[in-house]
Design brief:
The chain has helices at 13-64, 93-97, and strands at residues 68-73, 78-83, 86-91, 100-103, 107-110, 116-117, 122-128, 131-137, 143-144. The protein is α+β, with helices and mostly antiparallel strands. It has a single domain, classed as minor pseudopilin epsh fold (3-Layer(bab) Sandwich), CATH 3.55.40.10. The longest helix has 52 residues, at 13-64. The chain has a five-stranded antiparallel sheet. It has two helices and nine strands, in the order H-E-E-E-H-E-E-E-E-E-E. The protein is 39% helix and 30% strand.
Length: 145
């Protein structure tokens, strides 16, 4: 007569809990890194879009032989491209990328030769979460990001 149950292969409850704990720890580390990666990607995308708008302003100033300006609204996180005071285009970077803007000047203007006038350099800082990226525009219109 047999007093013990037949041996069945399988995992104990302790082993299952240990595996689930390890999976949870690895997942939490991966999610945190993914969040930082997404913040960096959004900040970079916003800087690239802002650089395109500034480059467009300079190119159109030369092509149309007219003064163009880019206005930075840090409250609404918006960039506005203007020709002789009238709005040409508007980019809501805060809404599109979930970023906030900080800038050392309110606007940037180009004359009909494509040369900037006003203060020396403009620095735009874009932030989202723990990530930040910047765009520097020189008076000559050179972009660095």
């Amino acid at each position: 007569m047999r007093l013990t149950a037949p041996h069945r292969p399988g995992l104990t409850l302790v082993e299952l809990c240990l595996v689930l704990t390890i999976i949870g720890l690895v997942t939490s580390i991966a999610v945190r890194q993914l969040g930082l990666y997404l913040d960096r990607a959004a900040a970079r995308a916003a800087v690239v879009e802002a650089a395109a708008i500034v480059a467009r302003a300079r190119d159109e100033a030369v092509a149309q032989r007219a003064s163009m300006s880019v206005r930075f609204d840090t409250v609404a996180d918006v960039l506005e491209l203007r020709k002789a005071g009238s709005l040409v285009s508007r980019a809501a970077l805060g809404h599109a990328h979930g970023v906030s803007l900080a800038v050392n000047r309110e606007s940037l203007a180009y004359d009909l030769r494509g040369l900037g006038y006003g203060a020396a350099n403009l620095t735009l800082v874009v932030r989202r979460g723990r990530a930040a990226d910047s765009l520097v525009v020189s008076r000559l219109g050179r972009l660095r990001w």
